[in-house]
């Protein structure tokens, strides 16, 4: 079955082949492709993502440690890149959490400013700016969860991201 509708492919398929310029760039179960894209192209094609560029600082078991403008970020190791390589991390919007309560900054935590929030019915889309980057973060919060946009300092954190949102060798995805 062939479709160009990503939502339909995720819902109906047992296996998906993502193609770019006539060749298969990733083949696998829908959840594996969504959660562990091998390239930035696949990550962008199959769903929304917040992308963060950085330098691979090292590995510890299954974890990759990346130095970014936001600070140190630890996530699932996509493999292939050597320490010192430029990589791109992919954090799916639904994995980004917001808090009005301050907490110590550290790996996978940073502060930002809410630029805007858009009511979407059963959830609210928050857009947070930090270090010249803009992050999308949909949440089931009450629209009044945060005071006014543009003035609210917010704590951002997540438990995991995937280095595979870029090419496994760093730099531009093939």
Spatial order of strands in the largest sheet: 7-11-8-9-10
Fraction of residues in H or I helices: 10-25%
H and E order: HEEHHEEEEEEEEE
Radius of gyration: 17 Å
Structural class: mainly beta
Termini Cα gap: 26 Å
Q: Number of DSSP strands? A: 11
Total of helices: 3
**Major sheet summary line:** 5 strands, antiparallel
- Return residue spans where pLDDT drops below 50 for at least 5 consecutive residues: 164-174
| Binned strand content | 35-45%
Q: Average the pLDDT over all residues and give the rounded result.
A: 79
Shape: flat
What keywords describe this structure?
four-stranded antiparallel sheet, 3 helices, single chain, 174 residues, five-stranded antiparallel sheet, mainly beta, disordered C terminus, 42% strand
List the helices and strands and how they pair.
Elements: H1 6-12, E1 16-20, E2 23-28, H2 30-35, H3 40-46, E3 50-60, E4 63-68, E5 71-76, E6 86-91, E7 97-99, E8 109-119, E9 124-130, E10 133-139, E11 153-157
Antiparallel strand pairs: 1-2, 3-4, 3-6, 4-5, 7-11, 8-9, 8-11, 9-10
Report on this structure.
This protein has 174 residues and is mainly β. It is built from three helices and eleven strands, in the order H-E-E-H-H-E-E-E-E-E-E-E-E-E. The protein has helices at residues 6-12, 30-35, 40-46; strands spanning 16-20, 23-28, 50-60, 63-68, 71-76, 86-91, 97-99, 109-119, 124-130, 133-139, 153-157. The strands form three sheets. It has a five-stranded antiparallel beta sheet with strand order 7-11-8-9-10, with no helix packed on it. A four-stranded antiparallel beta sheet has the order 5-4-3-6, with no helix packed on it. The longest helix is centred in the N-terminal third of the chain and has 7 residues, at 6-12. The radius of gyration is 17 Å and the shape is flat. The two termini are 26 Å apart. Mean pLDDT is 79; it is low at 164-174.
């Amino acid at each position: 079955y062939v479709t160009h509708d990503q939502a339909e492919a995720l819902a109906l398929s047992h296996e998906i082949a993502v193609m770019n310029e006539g060749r298969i760039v990733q083949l696998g179960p829908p959840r594996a492709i969504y959660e562990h894209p091998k390239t930035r192209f696949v990550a962008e094609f199959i769903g929304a993502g917040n992308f963060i560029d950085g330098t691979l600082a090292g590995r510890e078991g299954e974890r990759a440690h990346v130095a970014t403008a936001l600070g140190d970020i630890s996530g699932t190791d996509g493999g292939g890149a050597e320490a010192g390589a430029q990589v791109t991390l992919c954090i799916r919007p639904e994995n980004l959490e917001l808090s009005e309560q301050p907490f110590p900054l550290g790996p996978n935590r940073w502060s930002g400013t809410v630029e805007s929030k858009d009511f979407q019915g059963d959830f609210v889309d928050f857009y947070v700016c930090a270090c010249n980057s803009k992050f999308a973060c949909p949440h089931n919060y009450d629209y009044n969860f945060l005071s006014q946009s543009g003035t609210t300092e917010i704590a951002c954190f997540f438990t995991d991201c995937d280095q595979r949102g870029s090419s496994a060798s760093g730099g531009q995805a093939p």
